[in-house]
Design brief:
Elements (H helix, E strand, L loop, with lengths): L1 E9 L4 H7 L2 E2 L4 E2 L3 E9 L5 E8 L4 H5 L11 E4 L6 H9 L3 E5 L7 E5 L5 E5 L16 E8 L8 E5 L9 H8 L4 H13 L10 H28 L9 H12 L7 H16 L39 E2 L5 E2 L2
Parallel strand pairs: 1-6, 6-7
Antiparallel strand pairs: 1-4, 2-3, 4-5, 7-11, 8-9, 9-10, 10-11, 12-13
Helix pairs in contact: 6-7, 6-8, 7-8
Length: 328
């Protein structure tokens, strides 16, 4: 099970970095540091980053993520949020044998073709009639399975689309609970940006140096996560219960240890580090069921009323993460 998402990293405010990556704000009044956009594919269980692509602040995550399609192979389930939707990308991933479970906006997938017994339904998605790119070949339509649900105590409706259309083999309630695992990639970004990086702005003054520094951080994170995965197997636990910060302390202490680089010393340090990580297992994490909140409104128009159905053709199915169904 993989997750696809992006993050922003602040880079030094040099002329070269500003030209290559760009800043927030307008062209006449840019703000803050230049920012590099990193879009990555990560395993939800081990938090291992499989690959990443680096773009500029002004580039969208959808455009940057196109280069990662080749790293999502047959037999994987890819989770993604609304900002990464693209009909052409959907077809490319399906052709590679990838299973898909994505969140989507309420105005999409509204052409209902069939309502399934579990409350999910099949819908048709078509490309926009007026394409922005002149002469661009439009992607063919796609039939997807739509799952609508609410988390207990929350009025917002969550809409997912998936390529897993067999409602008996893949119940809607299980897919709804499974989508919460997409949040694991946010924890991956937190490990890199907050705990591993150690400073709010990268060091490199040139674009090539920035890219090199970012990939170095990703490689170090992957190696640390490999150590955590081995510690979890040795102690018959899961990677989710291992402490990334504890592993960072072990790795940093080992790197500067005066024992040298002999093979026996490295093996001893690794054995002791794995034992220390195993003694610092975290308690089991609770399921994430709190919705995101908008801190400030960027438009003068009000949003739709809470609890309004996503479509007027049917009432949305209410699903809870503890696998209990309720009729709405």
């Amino acid at each position: 099970m993989l997750a696809l998402d992006g993050m922003l990293l602040a880079v030094p405010d040099s002329a070269a970095n500003n030209d290559a990556f760009g800043k927030s704000g307008s062209q006449r009044s840019p703000m803050g540091y230049p920012q590099a956009r990193v879009v990555a594919v990560a395993e939800c269980s081990s938090h291992a980053v499989l690959d990443a692509v680096i773009g500029g602040f002004k580039e969208s995550e959808r455009i940057v993520s196109d280069a990662l399609d080749a790293h999502v192979g047959r037999g994987t389930l890819l989770l993604a949020d609304r900002g990464l939707w693209g009909l052409a990308r959907w077809h490319r991933l399906l052709d590679q044998g990838t299973h898909l479970l994505w969140r989507i906006e309420r105005r999409k997938a509204r052409r209902v073709q069939d309502v399934l017994p579990d409350g999910s339904y099949l819908a048709r998605i078509e490309a926009k009639k007026h394409s922005k790119a002149a002469g661009k070949v439009k992607a063919p339509p796609a039939v997807v399975r739509v799952i609508e649900y609410r988390v207990d105590g929350q009025p917002d409706i969550v809409r997912l689309i998936t390529s897993l259309t067999d409602q008996e083999k893949y119940p809607a309630v299980e897919l709804a609970a499974l989508y919460a695992r997409r949040w694991e990639i946010e924890l991956v970004f937190d490990e890199i940006k907050t705990h591993q990086r150690g400073r709010p702005v990268l060091r490199s003054q040139t674009p090539d140096g920035v890219r090199q520094e970012i990939y170095a951080h990703l490689i170090v994170h992957h190696a640390t996560r490999d150590l955590l995965d081995e510690a979890a197997r040795l102690h018959r636990s899961t990677a989710e219960r291992t402490s990334f910060t504890r592993a960072l302390h072990v790795v940093r202490r080992t790197v500067i240890a005066p024992s040298g680089f002999s093979l026996s010393a490295r093996r001893r340090d690794r054995r002791l580090g794995l034992a220390e990580i195993g003694r610092s297992l975290l308690p089991g994490r609770r399921l994430r069921n709190c919705p995101r909140k908008i801190r400030s409104c960027i438009t003068g128009y009000g949003s739709k009323a809470p609890g309004e159905p996503a479509s007027h053709r049917r009432s949305p199915v209410v699903v809870t993460l503890d696998h209990r169904w309720h009729d709405h």
